[in-house]
Amino acid sequence: MRAxxxxxxxxxxxxxLVGCGGAGTEGEAGTGAGDDAAGGEAAAPAExxxxxxxxxxxxxxLAAGGDAPTMMFGHDGxxxxxxxxxxxxxxxxxxxxxxxxxxxxxxVTTRRAGEPEAMEVERKFLEHLANPLSFEADGVNLxxxxxxxxxxxxxxxxxxxxx
Length: 163
Hints:
Lipocalin, alpha+beta, 163 residues, 10-stranded antiparallel β-sheet, 4 helices
């Protein structure tokens, strides 16, 4: 019975090592999705991390005084914010982020109603975020584009607070 118990423990350890990647072959370390050079989780590009407020939608400035959609990027690829009416949360594809493409998973949102104009902004905002978009960020502005079209332009919270 004691030999069987020892064999079961050895089998469990081997299974864990193989399943968790601890027994990988040379050259595999750090190449999987979500890995960084230190062997931990990949980090979102530093220029994306932080809070952003939408200032332009489909090339048009948003009306002043309304509740503008927001986006907050975490180091781990989490993305959350408001649509101006509802809250949402999702995650970014870290491999595509490294290539300059923002591709978000399905968003979880609250389901409150709002004024028709605000609901239209929300609809367009979420519709754009449902598709992979190229991004450019400079610490002040974050621009999400598709081809030559600038779809969403955000201003960083730090820039808004300073200005």
